[in-house]
Q: What sequence folds into this?
């Protein structure tokens, strides 16, 4: 039997890819089948933007009973009332007020998104899952070192998931196009009109296109932007570039000849 993602125990429990409470309250008529986008880069073929309508209500034997019924259940219990006002069919009119209130919950939201990104990455087709080192930090009750969290709103309400390790890269002030960065990733979750993103980009800085989302974690923006809306999760996914430098020692490749 495989080992639990989060501890040395055997993986003797079935874990929902997306939390069951979320599946029940966001769109029960879909029976868990959502648009799922997995972007990747293939040498010689370029950027592959793969989409499918698959069920994320499935269970995977990836955790143990102790983790599943212990700290994982507690985490879901804590996050549900935090997100509930923002995942209704209608996005709340005083959205800035709700986003301001999220600041106090930023660490737990970052932890929950990281856990959800990890479990989802284990299930998505044609994509490498996130590393077990990522899981070890989550099991200790901390958002993994280096992750960031963005929040925005979507004009078109739907349920969708997007996951990629592929990014547009500016390296040495030269736009070098799309690159597949193994240790980098972003996981975007659209719940009706709420957009959430957790990402990791060691060796690179995030450069946002306009409009900019609200950076919630690790250090929240001082002011919620006046405009933080995107048409949908696809625009949200492609709203960033990795900005690095010539000779970057990080995971973003240096294909530039700039000085």
A:
């Amino acid at each position: 039997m495989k080992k639990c993602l989060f501890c040395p125990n055997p993986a003797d429990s079935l874990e929902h890819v997306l939390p069951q409470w979320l599946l029940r309250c966001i769109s029960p008529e879909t029976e868990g089948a959502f648009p799922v986008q997995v972007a990747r880069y293939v040498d010689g073929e370029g950027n592959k933007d793969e989409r499918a309508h698959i069920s994320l209500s499935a269970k995977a034997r990836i955790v143990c009973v102790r983790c599943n019924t212990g700290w994982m259940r507690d985490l879901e219990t804590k996050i549900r009332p935090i997100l509930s006002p923002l995942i209704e069919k209608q996005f709340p009119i005083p959205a800035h007020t709700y986003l301001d209130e999220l600041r106090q919950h930023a660490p737990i939201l970052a932890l929950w998104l990281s856990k959800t990104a990890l479990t989802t990455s284990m299930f998505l087709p044609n994509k490498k899952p996130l590393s077990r080192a990522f899981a070890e930090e989550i099991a200790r009750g901390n958002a993994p070192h280096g992750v960031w969290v963005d929040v925005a709103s979507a004009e078109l309400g739907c349920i969708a998931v997007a996951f990629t390790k592929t990014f547009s890269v500016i390296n040495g002030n030269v736009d070098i196009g799309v690159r597949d960065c193994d240790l980098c990733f972003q996981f975007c979750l659209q719940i009706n009109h709420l957009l959430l993103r957790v990402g990791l980009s060691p060796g690179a800085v995030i450069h946002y296109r306009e409009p900019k989302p609200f950076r919630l974690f690790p250090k929240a923006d001082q002011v919620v932007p006046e405009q933080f809306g995107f048409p949908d999760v696809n625009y949200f996914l492609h709203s960033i570039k990795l900005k690095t430098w010539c000779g970057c020692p990080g995971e973003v490749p240096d294909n530039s000849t700039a000085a």
Observations:
- The chain has seven helices and twelve strands.
- Residues 254-259 have pLDDT under 50 and may be disordered.
- Helices lie at 20-26, 65-69, 71-83, 95-102, 106-121, 132-139, 233-237.
- The CA atoms of residues 14 and 242 lie 36 Å apart.
